[in-house]
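Sharing a chain and its predicted structure for anyone who wants a worked example. Both blocks are below, sequence first, tokens second.
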Amino acid sequence: RPARSQAGRAVNDRAGDALILRDVTLADLDVLAAMEAELFAGEAWSRDLVREEITGKHRRYFALEDPSTGQLAGYAGLLAVGTEGDVQTIAVAPEYRGQGAGRRLMHALLAVAQESGVRELFLEVRADNPVARALYTSLGFTEIGLRPGYYQPGAIDAVVMRLSPLPQRKSAHTNTEREGR
């Protein structure tokens, strides 16, 4: 299953850092599946695949929740096995874009990767997504390859990016309550 990232810009008066970072739980499954369908359209993971991802071995998923509405503003997931990790997905709802939500989610994934002993972190990003590519580059990722026609439908190329070594980061971003997964 292709990993994806989605980002963009929208103007809003809410600050991304006011959002609550927490672990995704099975209670979030229906909301995540609905967000998948809305944000990724033809590339969306099925509800069953979302369930597999959030409960899978060697995976960690985070959500950003708006404390004023209870709405999920975004989510992201990491697969970490041994010294390698993959950003499985990252998504931010349109009304929360351009406020640092994607960066907060990436910092959480980076902290978990580091804590898990990951030395190399990989991701794929749509070639036609300059905002996400700029975010990953600002975090130290470099472009290492291209996968032609990777994203379907539409045959959009995927840019493969790698971060190695992982930067030393404080784990304060991952101080979330672990709930039964």
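Comments welcome. Residues 101-115 form the longest helix (15 residues).
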